[in-house]
Design a protein that fits this description.
Layout lengths: L3 E3 L3 H6 L7 E5 L5 E5 L5 E7 L11 E7 L5 H16 L4 H10 L3 H16 L2 H19 L9 H10 L4 H19 L29 H15 L3 E2 L8 H9 L2 E2 L3 H13 L3 H5 L6 E2 L4 E5 L9 E5 L2 H9 L25 H10 L9 H12 L4 H8 L20 H16 L20
Parallel strand pairs: 1-2
Antiparallel strand pairs: 2-3, 3-4, 4-5, 6-7, 8-9, 9-10
Length: 444
């Protein structure tokens, strides 16, 4: 049966029967509005029109409104009437719908932002940090949403829900703001889409710097030594399923590799960032001069490499560490053509931290600890800032370590590293570096 025309009502729907070929019953009141009947028996509401100036020379477009089970004839007619009004004023409903479907999602925007902007113009540590923030806090909540549909109200509500972790919450705002600024800028991924992070008040952040006590350093040193020798006993999860418990029981001890232990110690003795140590290559180690020549970090205002002055404990670690591949901290694919730097230290760090009874200690606190010992030794902002790689034009970051003084970097690095190693109970091998006394000026 060919297409036909009638005033569409509920009786039209109930009276329509499937035939060998699909057909359409058009409404006699609203041109283009119709009921399409398929051989399978399913029925959908449609709207047909000629876009632009119309006329028989313009091909028709068909827009599906929805299934008869989802829309009554009256509901579908109102929608079709709205489309017809849009067409009469020069609109193109089908084109708008296609554009809506093609509009990028938050996930797609974030992937382009990371690969086209952050990976090319920021350091590896920044890239890793942005990836973590997006993967953990942005995509689970907004990943499938159209980027232009993410509102400030949505993001503000999510920010409030993260009030217990103000640093992470504020990081979400910073990353989203940067992402939308890039997408609306030269990248032209979005056009005139409001930045949802704009105007949202950040949480107040208290200083997170921490200096470990002698007792804490002793426990930390003992935990690392235990982990690399006898191993640290697993903490079984009472809620784990039986098969998982059996697997845990068969492997009750965590033993870390020499490279993992070296990574933890280098973080402690150099104050470097996690990603700097994990990405460190052997060709960036100048053993003769006792230096690490790392790619500059995002905070650097100078050109060239970031120079890390190594102290005796750090030199000893590097001189004794087996060279397996291109990276100092060997990963699973070390020495192969597909070698990549190790991704993280989460599992070994959790085991060591638990054994040392330092549950609140973050791996980044090791950097603060190094800076704190520098302040305790009376070394000033320029010295501590240089050792930590802070920008010489922005000493505010270093100000948390207080006291102004001037001493050679080598003297300071050796004094700080040797003092930390001594309190950890670490044995320092002769690495060709002078071991210098440490004067602790901290109160208490």
């Amino acid at each position: 049966m060919s297409d036909r025309s009638t005033k569409i009502t509920s009786r039209t729907v109930t009276g329509a029967t499937p035939e060998e070929k699909r057909y359409t019953i058009f409404d006699s009141q609203i041109p283009g509005f119709g009921l399409r009947v398929y051989p399978s028996g399913s029925m959908t509401w449609i709207f047909e029109y000629r876009p632009g100036e119309g006329g028989r020379g313009v091909a028709k477009k068909r827009l599906t409104i929805g299934k008869t089970g989802d829309f009554t004839p009256e509901m579908a007619r109102r929608i079709a009437d709205g489309h017809r009004a849009a067409v009469m004023t020069g609109g193109d409903p089908h084109g708008s719908k296609q554009a809506e479907r093609a509009a990028p999602t938050v996930r797609e925007i974030s992937e382009a932002f990371l690969s086209q902007h952050v990976a090319k113009k920021r350091g590896a540590a920044t890239l890793a940090s942005y990836k973590d923030t997006i993967a953990l806090h942005v995509l689970p909540k907004f990943g499938s949403r159209k980027a232009k549909a993410l509102t400030g109200r949505d993001l503000s509500h999510h920010h409030q829900q993260m009030a217990d972790t103000p640093y992470a919450a504020n990081k979400v705002l910073a990353v989203v703001s940067s992402m939308y600024g890039w997408a609306n800028g030269p990248a032209a991924v979005l056009t005139n889409v409001p930045n949802p992070a704009e105007g949202i008040e950040r949480f107040e952040e208290t200083e997170r710097g921490r200096v470990l006590s002698t007792d804490e350093l002793q426990r930390l040193g003992a935990a690392i030594r235990l982990a690399e020798t006898d191993g640290i006993e697993w903490q079984l999860n009472d809620d784990a399923k039986a098969k998982h418990r059996r697997k845990q029981a068969a492997d009750r001890v965590t033993v870390i590799s020499p490279h993992t232990a070296a990574a933890l110690r280098l973080l402690i003795f150099t104050g470097s960032r996690l990603r700097e140590i994990l990405n460190l290559r052997w060709d960036q180690f100048d053993g003769e001069r006792g230096l690490l020549l790392m790619p500059k970090h995002k905070t650097s205002r100078t050109t060239g490499a970031k120079v890390v002055v190594l102290n005796a404990p750090a030199l000893s670690i590097l001189n004794e560490l087996p060279r397996i591949g291109a990276h100092v901290i060997a990963g699973e694919a070390a020495g192969t053509k597909d070698e990549k730097p190790r991704a993280d230290l989460k599992r070994p760090w959790e085991a060591v931290r638990r054994e040392a009874k330092l549950d609140d200690l973050r791996i980044h606190d090791l950097r603060h600890n190094y800076g704190g010992f520098g302040a305790g030794g009376g070394y000033g902002l320029p010295i501590i800032g240089s050792l930590l790689g802070h920008s010489p034009k922005n000493p505010r970051t270093t100000a948390r370590y207080s006291h102004l003084a001037t001493d050679p970097l080598r003297h300071a690095a050796n004094a700080i590293g040797s003092e930390i190693a001594s309190r950890m109970g670490e044995q320092i091998q002769d690495a060709g570096a002078e071991i210098l006394p440490f004067k602790d000026t901290r109160k208490g």
